[in-house]
Design goal:
Elements lengths: L23 E2 L2 E2 H16 L7 H19 L3 H6 L3 H14 L5 H11 L4 H15 L3 H8 L3 H21 L4 H12 L4 H16 L3 H32 L24 H22 L6 H14 L5 H29 L3 H6 L3 H24 L4 H13 L2 H12 L5 H26 L1
Antiparallel strand pairs: 1-2
Helix pairs in contact: 1-2, 2-4, 2-5, 2-14, 4-14, 5-14, 6-12, 6-13, 6-14, 8-9, 8-16, 8-17, 9-11, 9-16, 9-19, 10-11, 10-19, 11-16, 11-17, 11-18, 12-13, 12-14, 14-18, 16-17, 17-18, 17-19, 18-19
Length: 437
């Protein structure tokens, strides 16, 4: 897939020949970036920052870039903890926790991310561009067997949760229902919330009680998924036979098509991505699946049936490259502000709880990798997409995990794991609750 699809903050931006600097941030010489930062901070603390798109996006772009720049240069963080990805998310969460930004700014960013659906805007660009950029035969070959490693991930997560939980005195019921299944369930909205309602109906306590139990598992599982994605990327570098370096399946090559950059095509790509998402939303009114899942199906069918002209596929690929290169760190910073509760993570930090959550995430990665290899997938890519993208917090976690693994082109498979895999876990939780009652 397109190797140019890297997160924002990559120093490959070309500075103007008139203004040269050894250090660049967001492609700009650091003195210019520092001046922009000073203007932003003045607007923030003088309470004149515009609400909405301009103000929120500017804070996310600038502060996300700074945290990403620092994270990519901290030795241990850079090598083993996800680098700028992890620092952009948890640095932003720490800013909220320590109240370093005014509350109106935090509120505006949260509204922009959630109410303004900036996260959806980002993800649909990755889904449309990645799938339409694939060879249709490769897409058929991959899609027909992708659910096999998802089942392997689920089995591995549950098995290790039971084993490690038993070692710490946890019952099978608590290890599976309270920790393993929420982690594997596709995030809050599609996982923990409906799961708590299932538990309420079958176990008797109010849904709010179960949410308070499930949320720490989700938060901590998301952290471990991001960290392990970074570790797996390092493993792939040291043991190249285990990885396709961004290709998900053996014998399938997804090559980049050389294109001349075209601003008009980027605009077309933006419209195509939005149109497919709207089509998924329309179908969602009749089919009980998440719009992301329906969008993936629609884009895949259009690609396999050759219903989209070259203009559309090329435009979608160019829009994908633009969004992934320029907006990723801003997106991660927004995830830290709007979706990451640092207090929840801190509250979950007991040795027993951490050990079982880690076991679930490792089990998901191992199960997906081992079973994925049996059906022809590269173990590293299978572990990341079918394993870690099941164990993270849905769409927000997918962005963070794939960024840490430097494999953003795998977003369609990550979304299958989060959405369709999450629906599978929700069904499984209902069945297992009746078994334990």
């Amino acid at each position: 897939m397109n190797n140019s699809v890297e997160r924002a903050g990559n120093s490959s931006h070309v500075a103007s020949p008139q203004v040269k600097s050894a250090v660049t941030l967001y492609g700009l010489p650091w003195p210019i970036f520092a001046l922009i930062t000073a203007v932003l901070l003045a607007a923030v603390y003088l309470n004149v920052l515009p609400a909405g798109l301009i103000g929120s996006l500017m804070v996310m772009l600038v502060l996300g870039e700074i945290l990403g720049f620092i994270g990519d240069r901290l030795p241990i963080v850079r090598s083993y903890l996800g680098g700028g990805v992890i620092l952009a998310i948890f640095g932003a969460a720490a800013i909220v926790y320590l109240e370093l930004l005014p509350k109106p700014v935090i509120s505006d960013i949260t509204t922009f991310m959630k109410g303004g659906e900036f996260l959806n805007f980002y993800i649909v660009a990755l889904i449309a561009g990645s799938i339409l950029g694939m060879d249709s035969k490769a897409l058929v070959k991959i899609g027909m067997r992708y659910f096999v490693p998802i089942i392997g991930a689920t089995a591995g997560a549950i098995l290790l949760a039971i084993v490690v939980g038993a070692a710490f005195g946890f019952t099978v019921q608590d290890a599976v229902l309270v920790i393993a299944l929420p982690i594997m369930g596709g995030g809050m909205g599609a996982g923990a919330i409906p799961m708590s309602q299932v538990y309420e109906q079958l176990l008797g306590q109010p849904a709010s009680y179960y949410v308070s139990l499930l949320v720490p598992a989700l938060a901590l599982g998301n952290v471990f998924s991001i960290v392990l994605a970074s570790v797996l990327a390092r493993v792939a570098d040291k043991f190249p036979s285990l990885s396709g370096q961004g290709q998900i399946m053996q014998g399938v090559s997804i090559e980049e098509k050389a294109q001349r950059l075209d601003l008009g095509k980027m605009g077309i790509g933006m419209m195509i991505a939005a149109a497919f998402y709207l089509a998924g939303s329309v179908l969602g009114a009749f089919i009980p699946l998440h719009p992301y899942a329906l969008m993936i199906i629609l884009v895949a069918v259009a690609k396999i049936a050759n219903l989209v002209p070259t203009l559309v596929t090329d435009s979608s690929s160019q829009w994908l490259s633009f969004v992934a290169k320029n907006l990723t760190l801003a997106q991660l910073f927004g995830i830290g502000i709007a979706y990451t509760d640092l207090q929840t993570v801190i509250d979950a930090l007991s040795i027993t709880y951490v050990a079982i959550v880690l076991a679930v995430v490792v089990g998901a990665a191992l199960g997906a990798g081992l079973v994925g290899k049996l059906v022809g997938f590269y173990p590293i890519e299978s572990s990341i997409t079918a394993g870690l993208c099941m164990a993270n917090m849905g769409g927000t976690g997918d962005v963070a995990v794939l960024s840490a693994a430097k494999r953003m082109n795998l977003m369609p498979f990550a979304q299958i794991s989060s959405r369709l895999g999450g629906a599978f876990i929700l069904l499984l939780s209902g069945l297992l609750v009746t078994f334990f009652v």
